What we know:
Elements: H1 3-13, H2 17-70, E1 86-90, E2 96-97, H3 110-116, E3 122-126, E4 134-141, E5 144-151, H4 155-186, H5 188-203, H6 217-270, H7 273-276, H8 279-308, E6 317-320, H9 321-335, E7 341-345, E8 349-352, H10 354-371, E9 378-385, E10 388-394, H11 427-437, E11 441-446, E12 452-459, H12 463-468
Parallel strand pairs: 7-9
Antiparallel strand pairs: 1-2, 1-5, 3-4, 4-5, 6-8, 9-10, 10-12, 11-12
Amino acid sequence: MSRPAGRLTRWWRWRSLRTRLTVIAATAIAASVFLAFQVASELLDWELRATAEDQLRADSRVLAANAELAGLAQLRLPPYPGSGRLVRVVLSDGSIRTPVGQPALPPVSEGAGRVAQGASADLMESGDSDDDGYFVYTLRVGGGAVQVARAADDSPINRFGLGMLLIGLLCVVCGALVGRAVARTGLAPIDRLTAAAVRVARTRDLDADIPDEGGGEIRQLIQSINDMLAALRDSRQAQRLLAEDAAHELKTPLTSLRLNIELLIRLDRRGTLDSALPSESRTRLLNDLGAQVVELSTLAAELTDLARGDVSDESTELLDLADVVGAAATQACSRVPDVEVALDVTSVWVRGRPAALQRAVLNLIDNAGKWSPADQPVQVRLRAQGASAVLEVDDAGPGIDAADVPRVFDRFYRADSARALPGSGLGLSIVQRVVDAHGGRVTVGRSPRGGALLRVDLPAVPIARLTAGDGTAVR
Length: 475
């Protein structure tokens, strides 16, 4: 791209939409006027030429009639009056006769000479150069020919062109003004929309919806922005609730941790640590501190997962959900050795993020492990049902009260019966978020053993599709 073209492109990109519409309107009108001028000029030139040729033919017939009566050599040629037609007699020997005082015509052409010698009946010629600016008509008469000529006159075309130029300039100016007015009127809703968006950005008032006005694309744009504002309001509200809930949940373990540490520091400074805290009490206190640190670490990890929402760098892949469930069960048993997990799984292929799915299954098993009696294992079942992969995790605990079922997946929600147990109230909320992100759903019910039954349904990949191959590597 040349430099002038590049500068023009940059200039165009930095212009406002209103300026662009004005320039486009003026350019379109200018192009239309130029095209109309070219067509009209050609038509006018053709019409003037046809009229001049018809007049020459009529004048030559009158002159030829007089020559038939008097003879070419004796034909009387009146002196040239100073304007009008030009005449010339061409004899068979090539000599010519012209009126007295008449301007010189171009030399007799070869074609006109053939007409005078009888080779053809007539000939129409035109010269467009500055020296030969004539229309010349040659008509055979007797032993020679008569010629009638008129000077080619471009003044009507020139006057017409000047008039079209003035009209074109006027049309371009008017078109630019009209385009500017139309652009201003048409973009007025956009201007108001921009002002409203700037006001929202300046005041950060997401509760003020932009008034719905106009129609068509403008209305759709306003509705889209209002939907975006509503989503931002929901996001800000969710962030506020997350911060408030996190502060509340962190307060209890931090307070307990601080009090225990302050107690140890105070006793150590007094030198009465060994006497005030026997070995058994000191061990119990340290265990409590360790448990509180673990609880804080778990809560921080769950808060991080929850705050990230659906944003994850982990790629989606085709995987066997049975492998994910087995890995989660192994991890759960290593974290809490007292929990027994009974697996009844079959191979079911799904498309998803392995780490996120494993975390969701681990949370389900951890939740069931808190309630399951020591002699009753947590049962985990996986099977294919229709087009879904169905995962069920149940325990033999007391179950979930009917009043707690609607809120069991809320963040930080803990039933009254669960407040004495370790946990943050985020586990099932993370499960629901992961399942929703994979296009599935999670429900809660009652286990045949009397405890809670949590069921996850995920879209499964058909076996036939796997055997045919879908271009994805199966690990």
